Amino acid sequence: MGSLGAMLKHPDDVYPLIKLKMAARQAEKQIPSQPHWGFCYSMLLKVSRSFSLVIQQLPTELRDAVCIFYLVLRALDTVEDDTSIASEIKVPILIAFHRHIYDSEWHFPCGTKEYKVLMDQFHHVSTAFLELRKNYQEAIEDVTKKMGAGMAKFICKEVETVDDYDEYCHYVAGLVGLGLSKLFHASGKEDLASDHLSNSMGLFLQKTNIIRDYLEDINEIPKSRMFWPRQIWSKYVNKLEDLKYEDNSVKAVQCLNDMVTNALSHVEDCLTYMSSLRNPSIFRFCAIPQIMAIGTLAMCYNNVEVFRGVVKMRRGLTAKVIDRTKTMADVYGAFFDFSCMLKSKVDNNDPSATKTVKRLEAILKTCRESGTLNKRGSYILRSEPNHSLALIVLFIILAVIAYHFGRLPNSHEIRIQDIAISCRKAAEDRSMFLGFLKYSRKLGQQSAMAIAAAAIIVPLGVLFFISGLFTNLVQAICFVLIRPLSKNTYRRINRVVAELLWLELVWLVDWWAGIKITLFTEPEALKLMGKEHALVISNHKSDIDWLVGWVLAQRSGCLGSSLAVMKKSSKLLPVIGWSMWFSEYLYLERSWARDENTLKSGLQRLHDYPLPFWLALFVEGTRFTQAKLLAAQEYAASAGLPIPRNVLIPRTKGFVTAVSHMRSFVPAIYEMTVAIPRSSPQPTMLRMFMGQSSVVHVHLKRHLMTDLPEDDEAVAQWCKDVFVAKDNLLDKHNAEDTFGPELEQDLGRPVKSLVVVVSWSCLLILGAIKCVQSSELLSSWKGISISAALLLVVTILMQILIRFSQAEHSTPARVAPANPNNRNRVADIRQAKDK
């Protein structure tokens, strides 16, 4: 539960931990096949997993030498640590250990667990040692000889003074620093570092371990082993073991802080040593343990838990250190941050506080003077946003979202009944397993489609809604501040602002889905499009007819001033509905008693519109579906009207009112007929978001407003006649799959919408980066929860938009009850439909 709790508190640890786990597995896979080398690297993993990961930074030849160097010294340390061995036996072994490494048959039974295995099979280490280059062997032998002698010296000697403490640490760790420097030099990749700096590298690590391991060493069985100098601990307690008792907690912490302050004296030398390294792999090998040491000291300082258990950096932070230590800037940054953390814990009443602060100030000054602090990414004092964790969380969210998109109409939903159907067929074929496999494959395809839909639609939704909200904000500001002063100025500005949003949807049609819209019209009509006010009437064939109209308006240069008569609920659509409201779209409630005055006043407001506009009016009142066509046919049969085959019966009241109020300032009516070729799938918003192409044919005929009759009833009849002609035109299109090649016009595919979307995307990405850098949006569970909530909101809004556009969710056409005199015609239509 501890690891889980740490991950819950620090969610940005998850990804580095995963990488560390994968690196450990990779290290296990890279164990050599030769028995002696295989034993050495396997043993390295067992006796020090962290070192086995750090050593992977090194080139192969140097890595082999360092591996053997580590195991030789670990074996030597095992002999020293085994308190069950009598001193008269232990000392000669320690002194002669440098000779045993040349003996491929030598071994000595001591230690416990993995260390016992190492000592029992030490001949494998010796065999591998003998395969190293001579200069590597000499460096390892020299350090082993000096270390063995030093350990033997302190078998019979207590650590009394601070000088004794430094001498002991030199023998057991400082010599390791000297040896590594010699190995680095022997590899030809580094200059030979000074003994003083190399010694400090080892002393800093060793003193950190001695401080951290107090409780483990004091409780060693059968005899405790302690290396805290009497000169320090005797200032606080009479016996070293007294520090572990709760009654002495205050004194224990003061002694601990004194020990930490002593260890800090080596930091500046360590920084100097690391700054001189040239080889990146050697640098990482040296830097990672040093950062972990300063981090451990920061955790231990002023922490009584050192005397209750083991205090160390959490695994996630360790994983971050390993993952993010790449340059000297990272080292200075880590030392700076951990030193700041340590300084914040200093109690001015502590006996060594003044000395501690002085040493910390020196370290901080060195880090500042490096001039690299602004180049490092801080992940210690303040977690750096972790985009990779966000991807993991977002993937889970997308999986949930995918389920919902998989249930949208037109997404080929697989129902539970499919299982029964597959199993029944399988039973008939005596192949239940085959039937189950068939269903499983189908279900897998559906799941893949749903996840793909979510992965595509959600990012597009984020782009659209964020840019849309910004557009709405600008429109609202202009509406409040500019419109009261000058309606014409507001309209001109709003036209540009709205177009920046609506071009995103044009981009979806042109560039994302690649929907090909072919216009069939006379050249004279094409020249006037976008240069005059026009009332546009059209059949409502597909879910994206309104978008088709926007594409034509964009090609004609009047996208920002294109208007429409919409149902009232449309203005509640987030972003797009609000944008339409600011652009003066007209909204009706589908009740003529309430809508008549609304429509008249809205049309009257357009009288002084300063730019060429199109006002779209779908006089059928709803989108075309087969169910609605049947209802329209039944109504036509009952009313004695021509039976429609491809269109619905127009509602003429709105059209008559529009003509009546727009005659004086609108010169033309654009009669559009939308058709989908037989070879092309029906275009939908969902298909479009998925990038699935389609083909749309649009026939446009320009009628002069002056050619329409003056009488309202005659205008209504004119509209009905137009739709009868439109029905016939669609019959012709169904037969020929075209409106006539002689009328076909090339609309092209302008790059304007592409430029706008790329610009919006760049602004959004830049803003997101700034937001993430200045907040914990993706580096804490709170931030991730907010991000997830925002994604879910976008998902819901996208579902609303998609469902709103679908014909299955449009308002059904209202039809009059059947006339008893025409029941036979109605019955014939129903029978034909059933067939």
TrEMBL record:
Residue intervals passing through the bilayer: 388-406, 449-482
Domain of life, per lineage: Eukaryota
E.C. no: 2.5.1.21
Reactions the enzyme catalyzes: 2 (2E,6E)-farnesyl diphosphate + NADH + H(+) = squalene + 2 diphosphate + NAD(+); 2 (2E,6E)-farnesyl diphosphate + NADPH + H(+) = squalene + 2 diphosphate + NADP(+)
A biological process from GO: farnesyl diphosphate metabolic process
Kinase keyword on record: no
Domain Phospholipid/glycerol acyltransferase as annotated: residue spans: 534-656
GO terms, molecular function: acyltransferase activity; squalene synthase [NAD(P)H] activity
PROSITE patterns, per the entry: SQUALEN_PHYTOEN_SYN_1, SQUALEN_PHYTOEN_SYN_2
Comp. bias (Low complexity): 812-824
Cofactor(s) this protein cannot do without: Mg(2+)
GO cellular component, one term: endoplasmic reticulum membrane
Biased composition (Basic and acidic residues): 825-835
Pfam families: Acyltransf_C, Acyltransferase, SQS_PSY
Record carries keyword Transmembrane helix: yes
Keywords: Magnesium, Membrane, NADP, Transferase, Transmembrane, Transmembrane helix
Location of the region described as Disordered in the Swiss-Prot/TrEMBL record: 812-835
UniProt record similarity statement: Belongs to the phytoene/squalene synthase family.
Protein name (Swiss-Prot/TrEMBL): Squalene synthase
Record organism: Cuscuta australis
